[in-house]
Every structure is written in structure tokens, then in C-alpha cells.
Amino acid sequence: MSQEIPPAQARHRRRVRQLLAGSHLSPTEVVQRAVALQGQDLPAVLRAIAIRSRPGTTVDDVRQAFDSGHLVRSWPMRGTLFATTPGHLATLLSLTAERTHRATTRRREQLGLDDRGIGRAREVLAEALQERPRSRAEALALWEAAGLATANGRGYHLLMHLAVGGLMHWGRFGSAGGQLLELSTAPAPEDPDAALAQVIRGFVAARGPVTPEDLAWWTKLPKTPLRSAAATMEDLVDLRVEGTRCWDLADDPVTEVPDGDDPPVDLVPGFDEWILGYADRSLVASSQALRALVPGGNGVFRPAVLVDGVVVGTWRRPRTPGGAVLELVEEVDTRTRARIDAALAQWPHD
What we know:
The chain has helices at about 5-15, 25-35, 40-50, 60-65, 85-105, 105-110, 115-130, 135-145, 155-165, 190-205, 210-220, 225-230, 275, 285-295, 335-345; strands at about 5, 35-40, 70-75, 80-85, 170-175, 180-185, 235-240, 245-250, 265-270, 305, 310-315, 325-330. The mean pLDDT is about 95. The chain is globular, with a radius of gyration of 21 Å. Among the domains are: about 55-185, Arc Repressor Mutant, subunit A, CATH 1.10.10; about 265-345, no CATH class. The protein is built from 15 helices and twelve strands. The strands form four sheets. The chain has a four-stranded antiparallel beta sheet, with helices on both faces. A three-stranded mixed beta sheet has the order 1-7-8. Helix 3 (about 40-50) crosses helix 4. The chain is an alpha+beta fold.
């Protein structure tokens, strides 16, 4: 029978699993453990990795992990950019690439991209990447020189399509500051079923408690094979949070919520897995807070201020020198407000 745990304990478990409570891991180990982290916004994901890494880790340390080839960025799921490792990228694409290509068929038709044109684009870029990594601008220029139009979204879609097909990924940083395209060489897993189980384990280990629906949303894979793979995991345990079935691992990272201490205050960057790692975000954010995180429902997730794992506001650094801009959407007491202000003043990852 599933154990019922209160919402506060579920958030506490998540905070520990999400490494917001701290870790002694390197940037590469953080991402290896989590399988993949949302990477739509490059500066944000660099910060998301840094705050989960060992004390003193900087954004430059995270960039170095990309420069050394230990971390990459690509479209492993849902046509969405993630930071991951070369091995995890190969595994995820072996599970998701066909579905992603099918889901984007209509878009290719709208853009006038047929198999012949895509094949030619692949040949041109593959030959160029065998010489050296290339910037996005260089890739588009190569295609234009080969008679392949890249305007009106065609170039972006070609990049995504070929990356999903396993040709290349975003890797090291170039002299201009952006990431460069590099050939993908990591092999696909020999045992797809075992690989899927390992993906599920990583997802739960870095985010639990999670619902089966969270996993299906994150991977965009069918629920039946996900449940079948999960059933092979002997250390996967059932929990319930307010009656909702959840999964966690038996290596329980916490036993109970600390009593008597001030609730933890955490700052997370935009597009963070604390929010985007779950289909149902009601455990950590009210409807009012979610509207503040994604103003106008435009798909752009702002950085969040968390108190005891609950979103109480958003924050940002101004473009000109000065303190952080804080917008609270939930009431906090004077002591908590002072702790939020201190966390903003001490934020090290600009």
C-alpha cells in the first residue's frame, strides 16, 4: 500500500533530490545524474547547473565542461533544447527521435523541406563538421552557398532536424561566446529496454517524488512502455501526496521536514527543472505564481524565488548595474523578506 506523505515533505524530498540543498558534484556529474536539464535559455541552464554543483562552482566552470566535451546541448525530447551528456543524448534520441520527426512532419511541409533537401543539408554540414566545429551562422552560410534557403525558420528547423537525427549537437563555446556545432559520435545503447529504465531512474533520482504523468510529459513517450520499464525497477516505491500517486526511489534522501529552522530560501534561474520538470506544478506554485512566472502565457519562464520550495515571486538582474529586481506574488513575513534580499545580494552567477 502506498505511503501518504504531506505536501511539505514532498517538497522537501524534491529540494534534496534537485540538489538545491547543495551537493559535492561537478557540473558534469550534476547533469549525468539528472539525465538532462532544460536548456532553452543558454545562460539560464549554465546557472541551473552551477547552483546544483559543489560550492564555489562558477558559470565558467560549467562552460568548461561543455568545452571539454563532457556536456552537450541538443534537442533530445519534445523538440526542446536540453543540456545533457553525450551518452545520455544518444540514449534519449534512440528512444525519441522517430517520434519527434513524425511530430514535425507538418512543419517541414510548411517550410518546403523535402527528403532530398534535408539529405543535401546533412551532407554539406557533415563534411564541414569533419573539418572543425561550426557556428550557427557558418552552418547557415554553408547551406545558402549550396543553394539551400535558410530564411523564415528553415535554417533553424534543419539544425533541429539533423540534431534529432543524431548528426551533431551544440558543444564547445566559440570565440564569439556562442556554442558551436560538433559531430555526435556517442553510440546508441545496445539494450533499449535497459536504457529506458536508466532514463526513468535518473528522472526520479533528480526530481522525485514525481507522478507517472510527469515522466510521460517530460519524455513525451507513451505511458505503457514507461510503466513497463518502471515496473522492472526494484527500488522504485509508490507514494501518495494529497491522494495523487507518485514515484520515488527507495534510497530515501530525507526522513522528515526539519522542525524549528527557518524555511529555506532558494533562487532558481528561468526555465528551471524545479518548475519545468513536472507536468503538474501545483505542489510548488499557486495559479497566481504560475501566471507571474510565465506572464501572458508566452512560454518564457522567469527566474523564481522559492521559500520552502514554494514559488513566492520572480526576480531578475537589471541590464544596467544595480540590485536585483524582486516581484513578490505571495505574502512573506519581514524575516523571510530579509533573507530573500540577502540571497539576491549574494547571488554569484551573473
